[in-house]
Specification:
By secondary structure, the chain is an all-alpha fold. It is built from 14 helices and no strands. Helix 2 runs antiparallel to helix 3 and helix 5 runs antiparallel to helix 11.
Length: about 350
């Protein structure tokens, strides 16, 4: 949202951006509805999407989707930390080349890992402050403004404009955050109520924000500036530091979400003997998955060493599109063919088919 939404609008134009946002949210909304329905069919434990699917659809399907989501979640940590490093290095005057992004991303990965080792509850409580920073940054952006009247850009028209598949792939990670909440299923008070409510609410709020930003940027900022300046939202905001705080808060909170959620997926799979039992061991009263955390961090570090936000985003999108496709078609087949599938949160089976076709 902060670092690439302007670039998306600059390349796709207003209506092209709306098409991309709608298709991306068609996928995320159908997937959210599918997983929400599945989560109310059986008891929900730790392991998020993997646990929900494996208990409802069986270990082979659950394991296939769980592995895909685990790697995607680990890559998401790299995506968010490289994005953070882009902003952080530019703001305080550090090197913004690939090696500079690798160094800063690796350092903050270490710091967030230490926080996760200390306490999950501490990491979760920081999210409230981060949410406040994001809200303030959005207010600052919308009450700010551009300079001269912008030159409009047609949908994917003109020289130097990225193709639609590239723009979509770089935008798509923006709509995948709801799975971080589901990944914390074992820490929820009432998963069967909390997962549907939190999932659907987060997707709807995200959709409203992205559509609002698309219109705002299209009518306020020149397309050429949107394509070339990744920090355009900071520069046009009424109070730039509020947007910086929002960027850092959003990226670090999303990275924490991956650091907390990814190991729990791997731990749950290991307890079912799909992955090595070594990663199923937990520590302390809350059964913290320390071994699984170490592997998650190693995969995330490999992603950070790529050092290019756009390339990581495209890799990330492929893993999540594959996982979401599996989730949707599994929900469709289960609700169509299984007499034992009786969720309390009712969703039409055709939602799953639509989501599968969209992915």
């Amino acid at each position: 949202m902060y670092l690439r939404m302007g670039w998306v609008v600059g390349n796709a134009g207003l209506w092209g951006t709306i098409v991309i946002v709608v298709i991306a949210h068609l996928i995320s909304f159908s997937t959210g509805l599918s997983i929400s329905s599945i989560s109310t069919d059986k008891k929900v434990g730790a392991g998020g999407v993997y646990y929900v699917l494996s208990r409802s659809l069986g270990l082979p399907i659950g394991g296939a989707i769980g592995l895909t989501l685990f790697i995607g979640t680990a890559l998401s940590i790299a995506l968010y930390l490289v994005g953070f490093s882009e902003s952080f290095n530019a703001y305080i005057g550090l090197s913004a080349d690939v090696n500079g992004l690798r160094s800063t991303g690796s350092l903050f990965l270490l710091l967030l890992t230490i926080i996760a080792f200390i306490s999950t509850s501490v990491a979760l409580k920081t999210q409230f402050f981060i949410l406040a920073a994001i809200v303030l940054s959005l207010v600052s952006i919308f009450i700010g403004g551009g300079g001269a009247t912008p030159n409009p850009v047609s949908a994917f028209g003109g020289q130097g404009v990225a193709p639609i598949e590239t723009v979509f792939a770089i935008f798509f990670p923006a709509v995948t955050g709801f799975t971080a909440g589901i990944a914390m299923s074992g820490d929820l008070g009432n998963p069967k109520k909390d997962i549907p409510l939190g999932t659907i609410a987060s997707i709807v709020v995200g959709f409203i924000v992205y559509i609002g930003l698309a219109f705002f940027l299209s009518y306020k900022i020149d397309a050429e500036l949107l394509r070339t300046d990744y920090n355009v939202l900071v520069n046009i905001a009424y109070f730039g530091p509020a947007v910086i705080a929002g960027i850092w808060g959003a990226t670090l909170s999303s990275a924490i979400g991956g650091i907390l959620g990814g190991p729990r997926i791997l731990q749950a799979m290991s307890l079912d003997r799909i992955t090595p039992r070594l990663f199923g061991k937990g520590v302390g009263a809350s059964n913290e998955p320390r071994n699984a955390l170490i592997l998650t961090v190693l995969i995330a570090e490999a992603g950070i060493l790529i050092g290019e936000l756009d390339l990581i985003a495209r890799l990330f999108s492929m893993f999540y599109l594959a996982a979401y496709g599996f989730i949707n078609i599994s929900f469709f087949l289960e609700s169509w063919a299984s007499s034992d599938f009786k969720p309390s949160f009712k969703v039409s089976r055709w939602v799953g088919l639509i989501g599968f076709v969209a992915t």
